[in-house]
Amino acid sequence: MYLRQISTGDNIEIVEPKEMFDPFQNSIQGRRHSGEELQDTESFDKSDLCFLSEEALPRCWTDPRYHSG
Predict the structure, then answer these.
(1) CA separation for the pair 37, 35 (Å, rounded)
(2) Burial class of residue 68 in the structure, from the number of CB atoms within 10 Å of its CB (0-12 exposed, 13-18 middle, 19+ buried)
(3) Which of 1, 9, 12, 21 has the smallest set of CB atoms within 10 Å of its CB?
(4) What is the reported pLDDT for 66?
(5) How would you write the chain as a 3-class SS string?
(6) Dihedrals φ, ψ of 41, to 5°?
(7) What is the pTM of this model?
């Protein structure tokens, strides 16, 4: 799965998509896709990620109280 980092515009490969779907997890592990070499894994805040189409992530992925409201 690929997402875009809002602050830099970089494409990010999500290492473990399961982390993306957990609303209690504020950051996820991913790799930037820039250049030809495989980049090191780093942590990214979900609040700074969006889909490649620049759509926001679904609230059920980011808000642990989504079902209670």
Answers:
(1) 6
(2) exposed
(3) 9
(4) 84
(5) CEEEECCCCCEEEECCHHHHHCCCCCEEEEEECCCCCCCCCEEEEHHHEECCCCCECCHHHHCCCHHHC
(6) -70, 140
(7) 0.87
Residue 69 has pLDDT above 60, yes or no: no
Say which residues have a Cβ less than 8 Å from residue 51's Cβ, sequence separation at least 6. Answer: 3, 4, 57
Domain count, the chain: 1
Range of the domain at 61: 2-68
- Do the beta carbons of residue 59 and residue 11 sit within 8 Å? no
